[in-house]
Amino acid sequence: MVKDTSVLLEEKRVFKANYRIVEEAHVKNWEAEIEKGKDPVSYWAEKAEQFEWFKKWDKVLDESKKPFYKWFTKGKINLSYNAVDRWVSSDKRNQVAVLYANEHGEERKLTYYELYREVNKMANALKNLGVKKGDTVSMYLPMCTELLVSMLACTRIGAVHSVVYSGLSVGAFVERMNDANAKVLITADGTYRRGKIIDLKKIADEALLQCPTIETVVVVKHTGNPIKISELSGREIFYETLIDGESDDCPVEEMDAEDPLFILYTSGSTGKPKGVLHTTAGYMVGVATTLKNIFDIHNGDLWWCTGDVGWITGHSYSIYGPLLLGTTTLIYEGAPDYPDPGAWWNIVEKYGVTKFYTAPTAIRHLMRYGSKYPNLYNLSSLKIMGSVGEPMNPEAWMWLYNKVGKTKIPIMDTWWQTETGMHMISPLPISPLKPGTPTLPIPGVDADVVDENGNSVPLGKGGYLVIKKPWPAMFRTLYKDEERFVDSYWKEIPGGVYNAGDIARKDEDGYIWIQGRSDDVLNIAGHRVGTSEVESAFVSHPAVAECAVIGKSDPIKGHVIKSFVILKEGYTLNTNLIEDLQKHVRYELGPVAVLGEIKQVDQLPKTRSGKIMRRILRAQEEGEDLGDTSTLED
Ligand code: WT7
């Protein structure tokens, strides 16, 4: 709840790190690190020293054109060089850099040296296709090694990549490719999805009819799906043919710290998708530092982030973060419950995953099958787990903590966004944890909860989540739309702060509880109520697996809460259960929880990254236009 009336749902228990975690931790003294972070300029400058620079920066932070901040100005650096070459000339040369696995039990491993050779070949091949520094290359690929190689090849030669999630439909794909003016498209013969092969080339062909800027289409043979390419036209070529015979030595482009690195589209609730633009050096510093400290990356780790590379999670933490730290990253192509709900736990056991990073939607999904599946596997290799994407319901947190982590493993609930590029609010492994909150801003980040005038709100009270000082991995603009960049994020709240678009509340320890997107906020008899706590209250009832709530217009109350619930196996929504749910939620949240209709559904509208799209439910209820549905799953 945004109002202080009701904080009952808050899980009061605090989980402290055990001595093994503390012994290993890179950051052992949280207060000291926070103190250092109070001066972001010196803090991030120190972190930037971990890389090899071709030329050091003149100025750490240039604030002369707010909110168009610049970091490490005049510095020269290359991401690909720091993520690959640097390790080839170290004792990590023959260490596995990337381990690909899929739902059929197949795998492919590339050592840093093998990765180096393939990236260089691909970089040369792209150059031969006429790709130059600053050109955009689009990718519509499954999780596969070629995707990673192609991204690193782009950053090696200074091309800007724009990855389009392989689950998006033709329309969404066309819009993104045209907006980015992509010159080359890299796609594949297919992707595995729950035992089937989805023909990506066919979707790409359809999209390409409407994409005039694409000069070449590169096709990865990934699934063995027999596809036709028209080699004669000279526009289409297989990836393996393209790199065959290329030299494995391609000079590295010395990039300016602020040169564009990639564009990644994220859907706005209205209007066309936003092309979030990230630049080079600050992004590198932000993602490497956060991954290292929050997930305590050490030699010997096997890092697994389940996020698809089509989303920022995959960019920052499946690929760039782990490679910049010289660790081994596992990329997996497959659903959490195919061929059975033990699929992911099987991967953890089989490869000995040490750090596991996933999303609340996956956990809630796996929770439905109970503890049977995690119990079938030996998960003792795990040391730290994490989550991102939505508020972690305390119920889901406890399940992960008890059933997967066997009460020994800390969970890093990380709050961040496509726009922030890196983790912003998160515990460190040594932090005392409370289920359901990402705890506190990380060292070097200044976040707060404020009212519409930009003043901090008292503890317990709801408000807007803002970031008060610039941070290195921040997006620099919306591609080709500076006006929208300023209007959407920097204008509404006074004081020059970044408005994240979320509402939140701080508890008595200053821990930040995310209430949901401000677009989704409910207004009940004058009280602003976040969606998240109402949904968590529902999910904490034994009958409910998942829930979404919206505010339905009501002439007297403003809004009444309409709830959509997915029930666990064996439950039906009869009058008794409805009454019980009403009592339960009221007990958890207090009288502000004015519940209207509770509706049982089999599915909730979600984005392909697993976020519940409440505005679709709302539009349906109010009989309005559904708006941009390009990222809707079904
Ligand atoms: C929005 C950003 C999928 C990659 C990361 C998300 C929500 C994210 C948390 C969290 C509560 C969270 C916020 C945020 N969100 N992490 N730990 N607890 N809410 O990137 O697609 O740009 O979405 O996701 O509402 O604003 P994104």
Quick description:
With 634 residues, this protein is α/β, with parallel strands linked by helices. It is 30% helix and 23% strand.
Main sheet summary: 8 strands, mixed
Q: How many strands in all?
A: 30
**Molecules bound to protein:** 5'-O-[(S)-butoxy(hydroxy)phosphoryl]adenosine
Give the averaged pLDDT, no decimals: 93
Gyration radius, rounded: 24 Å
Low-confidence parts: 1-8
Q: Oligomeric form of this entry?
A: single chain
Instruction: Please give the alpha-carbon distance between the first and last residues.
Output: 31 Å
In which order are the strands of the major sheet placed? 12-11-8-6-7-14-15-23
The residue fraction in helices comes out at: 25-40%
Total DSSP helices: 19
Strand content: 15-25%
Relevant terms:
single chain; disordered N terminus; 30% helix; 19 helices; alpha/beta; globular; binds 5'-O-[(S)-butoxy(hydroxy)phosphoryl]adenosine; seven-stranded mixed β-sheet; eight-stranded mixed β-sheet; 634 residues
